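Morning F.,

Quick status update on the modeling queue. The single chain you submitted on Monday has been processed. Sequence for confirmation:
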Amino acid sequence: MGIVIIGTGLAGYTTARELRKQDKDAPLTLVSADSGRAYSKPLLSTGYRKEQQPSDLVQAGPEAMAEELNATVITATAVASLEREQRRVRLTDGNTLTYDRLVLALGADPMTPRLGGDAADAVFQVNDLDQYERFRAAADPAQRVLIMGGGLIGCEFANDLALAGYTVDLVFPEPWPLPRLLTETPGRALHEALVEQGVRVHSGGTLAAVDYAGEGLVATCDDGTRLQADVVLAAIGLRPRTNLAAAAGLECGAGIRTDRWLASSDPAIAALGDCAEVGGYVLPYVAPINQAARALGRTLAGEPTPVHYPVMPVSVKTSCCPVVAWPPEADAAGTWSFDGDGRDLRGEFRDEQGALEGFVLTGKRIKERMSVTREMPPLLASE
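Structure tokens below.
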């Protein structure tokens, strides 16, 4: 029966590659609900300033990936259900796949904003290459882009589009951008850098409605402010795709819960990437996905290997003010201190004993990433 991987994003394809380093011949099938093209997702938010079209981001098509991986790659086909007792995957086209081991690399869904107005359905979301192509088709001939959300994706797209000459409005409810990664001091520095780049930042509010207005759109904020736009992009967060797993009776929390070996509550089913809660952590970033895929590839090949999470700082590609951050745990006790000025800051969060529990670097100080990272304890230590 072999191994079935559901998902052909970074988690799915990297797991398959890692498996093939250990086992060249195990029967392997990958299933994708989208086009199955291999690409680097972080590059979606740098395409304009690098003058790259969506096709330039494609590393390989599904046929090439099938050949590289000695695998079957099924595209444009969703999974209807998991039948665990039979170790069977039922597809929406009516076909079924049986498995010895199943890997869920399902990713996450963009959160959909609750908006009024007759153009609410015209708001774009970008979480994969197919969605990015649709966004680019609308945005390329446009002049004004409104972005809803001040997190990593919203800030990176605002920076990228402003550099490309667009009029960009960035709207978010928090007092400064990147609120999950940054405290006020570096948050204000990024805010000022985005404004200097030409982004019109509207903090402390959100959108209530989007309506058609002639050939364009008008967005109404919750305070009554009206903003003109040609295209609206919502980037307000991601929600791990757990519905399929939950319907099959797998244990889910913030994501599909797994142990250190990436096994779910069913030992025959593993999960990783944006959909997974590994050892209590949901980390939708490249570095932890690569760490998990390396471990899982070995496990699938017969060498059970627990995942090890070192400190993996999050890099934000806002060229106006680059950011590298590793925030402390939400309930950590300690204090922040900052060194530097303007956009070039180093912030450290230390507990009462002086141990480093989190940090943030902005501007030119990002070059200190390696030295500060070495002082941090691992998130999940090697066993």
